[in-house]
Amino acid sequence: MNYSKENNTKEYFISEFHKHFDGTPRIFRAPARINLIGGHTDYNEGFVLPVLLERYTTVAIAPRDDNELHIWSENMNELLTFSMDNLKPRGIWSDYIVGVVKELIEENFLFSGANVCIMSEIPIGGGLSSSAAVEVAIANGILSLVGDSMDKCDIARVCQRAENKFVGMQSGIMDQFVIIHGKEKHALFLDCRSLEFEHIPLLTNNIRIVVCNTKIKHELAASAYNERKAECQEGVRLFKGICPGINALRDVSLRRLTELKNTLPEVIRKRCYHVVSENERVIKSVKALKQNQYAVLGQLINESHDSLRDNYEVSCHELNTMVDIARSLPGVLGSRLTGGGFGGCTVNLVESEHVDNFIREISSRYEEKTGLQPEIYISEPVGGAYELV
Ligand code: GLA
Questions:
Q1: Which phi and psi (to 5°) does residue 347 adopt?
Q2: How far is the CA of 26 from the centre of ligand 1 (A)?
Q3: Which of 178, 216, 231, 295 has the fewest CB atoms within 10 Å around its CB?
Q4: Residue 14 has what pLDDT?
């Protein structure tokens, strides 16, 4: 689903809602996120540098008074109903939404039910955080029904908890946080420990951020993701035995890691090496952006992918193929997988004058090599989640 200018309006979303429900809905939107650099650092209390892409999940929501939640998903073409007294995971798409409702109820945001219509143009399982987008949009929608507000960081935390506890994906805070706090024409430099952040201007006249979807969705992504997190925690446990001050991989420097590397099992050492070096790359990327050194940023992006591929082992054949093709094309400063990995999208830094050729070449060469037709998305970084009024 990709909304054209004509149907990207409040009237359109209300009319879609009225195909399934009565009442006057309010409309909440949340964009997709692309992480420029900082892969798998967020749950290690490290640094990330995401931007937001102009593709949205839209939630139309109106109150009910019978303590029921009725959710229509346009993408799934399915209506599901829930009693608010018995909200349990079903192992399907609705868990992201119901999980947020449950977390908000536990925070004492009480309401008597809702009709919800979800319409998303963010590819599901594409590594652009369709899940965090729907979580944030629904959280804002429910808060509007309750007539209450919540601190933005707390909304991000509620959504993250829903994903951790209800969906069972041990994801970090990056996606929800940037979807709420992102700013037009800026990247967001976030310290995932303190949640301090800085908006970093992106000069996108000469450089474009081009996202390429491999169209591969890895079935085991959630379990492999949780396994990586457990390996990082094991690294922390081993480090702590030697240096008690270490509470997360964020606290480990490259120098310390090199000194202690022989005390770690091979796999744990590789995972730690990725996270520790990736945190350094994020810091260097912010510096490069502030000095308009896009070639330096591109090089760091390349190094990030290579480390995700070789040390963190979260890439796959199609992502590597897409990245290799991109790097062979003129005007490409950097290319890496974005998101959790095992499929989904790559993010590419491309000089504007080469973008048309890039799209043409990457589409045909990727299809030639894999038999899959990629999807390409380009946009200026947009602002965070909002109500369409
Ligand atoms: C997924 C998770 C994020 C983050 C990325 C990897 O998108 O939801 O929290 O860990 O993977 O950087």
A1: -115, 135
A2: 29
A3: 295
A4: 97
Give the strand pairing for 50-63 and 345-351.
Answer: unpaired
Per DSSP bridges, beta strands 332-338 and 345-351 are antiparallel
C-alpha pair distances (Å), 366 with each of 205, 213, 363, 372, 376: 27, 11, 5, 7, 12
CA distance 124 to 127: 8
* Ligand 1 atom at minimal distance to the Cα of residue 48: 12
**The pLDDT value given to residue 131:** 96
Q: What is the pLDDT of residue 302?
A: 99
Closest atom of ligand 1 to CA, residue 174: 9
Low pLDDT (below 70) residues in the chain: 1-6, 218-220
Nearest to 304 by CA among 329, 270, 330, 281: 281
Residue 175 appears among annotated catalytic residues = yes
C-alpha–C-alpha distance, residues 198 and 127, integer Å: 23
Mark out the alpha helices in the chain (DSSP H runs).
10-18, 95-106, 130-146, 152-161, 174-181, 221-242, 254-260, 266-290, 294-310, 317-328, 355-370
Catalytic choice (66, 175, 306, 356): 175
pLDDT of residue 1: 58
Element spanning 334, H or E: strand 332-338
In angstroms, the CA 172 to CA 161 distance is: 9
State residue 56 phi and psi, 5-degree precision.
-125, 150
Give the per-residue pLDDT at 221: 76
Give residue for tokens 């919800």.
116
The token pair that represents 343 in the structure block: 């499929």
Read off the tokens for 192: 């995932």
List beta partners, residue 118: 59, 73
- For residue 43, the ligand 1 atom closest to its alpha carbon is 10
Helix (H) or strand (E) holding 117: strand 113-120
Pocket test for ligand 1, best of 175, 179, 271, 308 (most atoms within 8 A of CB): 175
CATH 3.30.230.10 assigned to domain 5-201+383-388? The reply is yes
